[in-house]
Amino acid sequence: MFRRRDRIQYKTPEQIRTMRAAGLVVAEVHQAMRESAGPGVSTAELDRIAEEVIRSSGAVPSFKGYDIGFGPYPASICSSVNEQVVHAIPARDAVLREGDLLSVDVGAIVDGWHGDAAITIEIGEVAPELTALREACEASMWAGIRAAATAKRLGGISHAVEHSVERSGEYGIVTGFGGHGIGTEMHQDPHILNYGRPGEGPKLRPGMALAIEPMITLGSPDTAELEDGWTIVTDDGSVAAHTEHTIALCEDGVWVLTAPDGGVEQLGELAASAARAE
Ligand code: MF3
Ligand code: CO
């Protein structure tokens, strides 16, 4: 399953189908988040709902208890508001307000296989530049996903994300964090930068599963970590957006495992037949 040289876990079609099941649980949580998030709602309440959706599907929340060496993560989602970029811990006193930009990141495990994805949600009516920021982030993720279907090497994905962000406007591309391989663990090789050159990195091959996750800001690309050991904020206090999908590279195209339609609408001919056959 691992090729010794690149430490990448290559999945069989059957394993990818199990990852699809995990991806659909994540997609269901996203839908619940879109329906529940609004002015006056706390991020702790969103976390409660998310965990309920995950467990009632028979899945396990992958973030809860996740430990990168500083103690277990205490929740089932990351809920990052405005200048928070990623990994913000849900809290009772983090009450959403009209005009906020919220990113919700969710992970679920089914039969040992992971799905991981994030959406950025507008709370009530937001400033036009926040809508543009959200849309630029989503567009760059899809550019990266399309590149995963056409590029030869991982750097092609990174390059496509970067190029898309630059085409959209004057945004900071967060450099400290990026996407990753995913499978029987949430974070696997390779690390996926959101900027780079097409010729760089390992070859893209069928059986790879990747989480593509651009994070962009209205200002500086630099970030800082809060004292809780998790929350990442922009250095300059500018608002950030974050979107993520888990995808699988199949023999005949890409399957967006955390998208309800498998990515068919966005990818068209580039979508794997397994996605189109659902
Ligand atoms: N989706 C997040 C990422 O890839 C994972 C959150 S880690 C947790 O960075 F610890 F916060 F759960
Ligand atoms: Co991720």
TrEMBL record:
EC number: 3.4.11.18
GO molecular function, one term: aminopeptidase activity
First-tier enzyme category under EC: hydrolase
Binding-site positions, a divalent metal cation 1: D105, D116, E244
Residues annotated as domain Peptidase M24: 18-248
Entry binding sites for a divalent metal cation 2: D116, H180, E213, E244
CDD domains: MetAP1
Cofactor: Co(2+); Zn(2+); Mn(2+); Fe(2+)
Keywords: Aminopeptidase, Hydrolase, Metal-binding, Protease
Entries under Pfam families matching the protein: Peptidase_M24
Domain of life: Bacteria
InterPro entries xref list: Creatinase/aminopeptidase-like (IPR036005), Pept_M24 (IPR000994), Pept_M24_MAP (IPR001714), Pept_M24A_MAP1 (IPR002467)
Reaction catalysed by this enzyme: Release of N-terminal amino acids, preferentially methionine, from peptides and arylamides
Binding positions (substrate): H87, H187
Purpose: Removes the N-terminal methionine from nascent proteins. The N-terminal methionine is often cleaved when the second residue in the primary sequence is small and uncharged (Met-Ala-, Cys, Gly, Pro, Ser, Thr, or Val). Requires deformylation of the N(alpha)-formylated initiator methionine before it can be hydrolyzed.
PANTHER family attached to this UniProt entry: METHIONINE AMINOPEPTIDASE
Complex formation: Monomer.
Protein family according to the UniProt entry: Belongs to the peptidase M24A family. Methionine aminopeptidase type 1 subfamily.
Protein name: Methionine aminopeptidase
Native organism: Glycomyces endophyticus
